[in-house]
């Protein structure tokens, strides 16, 4: 009898352990596959200009060099200012990639959409090309010192002769796009508008000087 009781007790303990382990697995499984609340909002610059100049029939090759960028903005952190000579970064809003990395594919698509070049190249490319476009992001910040708040975007571009490496022409574009409200997301929307306008101006600049 005693042996039977001990066997029953051992069986009960084993069953209890099994149920406890199963419950733990189910709970951890629910936790594992449940949506994780992410408090960081990620903004993208992904808007192309709707209207572009066209110059069909050119057989030249255009190389787009990786955009340089002011070190202050060479980060996924989203910059803003509330007083002169000072930059801060939002704690719960950031870019999906660095501004330079977001700009390069937009530049490439914009220049391809002009249908003005036989080929538009991006690195890595080690072959010959007729023209190269250098670009540098000087400013990308949400300015809350103005009324209304404004997205400030500045871009310097240079068109270079691929044969002589001589700078054919250069231009600095400075855009200020009003924000609809004083929020980081409104700044993201304004950044997309400003960059799209800048891309259109870059296309006009390149087509004007790449003759």
Question: Which helices and strands, and how do they pair?
Answer:
Blueprint: H1 2-33, E1 41-43, E2 61-64, E3 68-69, E4 77-81, E5 88-95, H2 99-113, E6 119-121, E7 131-143, E8 150-161, E9 167-178, H3 184-209
Parallel strand pairs: 1-5, 2-6, 2-7, 3-7, 4-7
Antiparallel strand pairs: 4-5, 7-8, 8-9
Question: What report would you give on this structure?
Answer:
The structure is a single chain. With 211 residues, the chain is of the alpha/beta class. Helices cover 35% and strands 29% of the residues. Strands 1, 2, 3, 4, 5, 6, 7, 8 and 9 form a 9-stranded mixed β-sheet that branches. The model is unreliable at 25-34 (pLDDT under 50).
Q: Considering DSSP H and I runs of 4 or more, what fraction of the residues is helical? A: 25-40%
Q: In percent terms, what proportion of residues is strand?
A: 25-35%
Helix-strand sequence: HEEEEEHEEEEH
Radius of gyration: 28 Å
- Cα distance, first to last residue? 104 Å
Number of strands: 9
The biggest beta sheet, please?
A: 9 strands, mixed
Stretches where pLDDT is under 50 for at least 5 consecutive residues are: 25-34
Give the overall shape, derived from the CA principal axes: elongated
Features:
alpha/beta, single chain, 3 helices, elongated, 211 residues
How would you concisely characterize the structure shown here?
The protein has 211 residues and is an alpha/beta fold. The chain has three helices and nine strands.
């Amino acid at each position: 009898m005693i042996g039977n009781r001990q066997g029953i007790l051992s069986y009960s303990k084993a069953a209890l352990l099994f149920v406890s382990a199963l419950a733990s697995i189910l709970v951890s499984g629910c936790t594992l596959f449940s949506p994780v609340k992410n408090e960081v909002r990620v903004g993208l610059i992904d808007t192309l200009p709707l209207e572009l100049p066209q110059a069909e029939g050119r057989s030249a090759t255009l190389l787009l060099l990786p955009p340089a960028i002011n070190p202050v903005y060479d980060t996924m952190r989203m910059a803003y200012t509330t007083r002169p000579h000072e930059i801060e970064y939002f704690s719960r809003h950031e870019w999906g990639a660095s501004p330079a990395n977001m700009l390069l594919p937009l530049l490439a698509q914009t220049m391809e959409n002009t249908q003005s070049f036989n080929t538009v190249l991006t690195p890595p490319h080690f072959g010959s090309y007729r023209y190269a476009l250098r670009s540098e992001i000087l400013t990308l910040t949400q300015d809350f010192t103005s009324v209304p708040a404004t997205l400030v975007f500045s871009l310097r571009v240079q068109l270079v002769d691929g044969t002589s490496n001589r700078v054919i022409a250069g231009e600095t574009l400075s855009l200020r796009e009003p924000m609809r409200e004083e929020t980081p997301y409104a700044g993201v929307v304004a950044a997309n508008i400003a960059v799209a306008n800048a891309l259109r101006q870059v296309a006009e600049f390149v087509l004007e000087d790449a003759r």
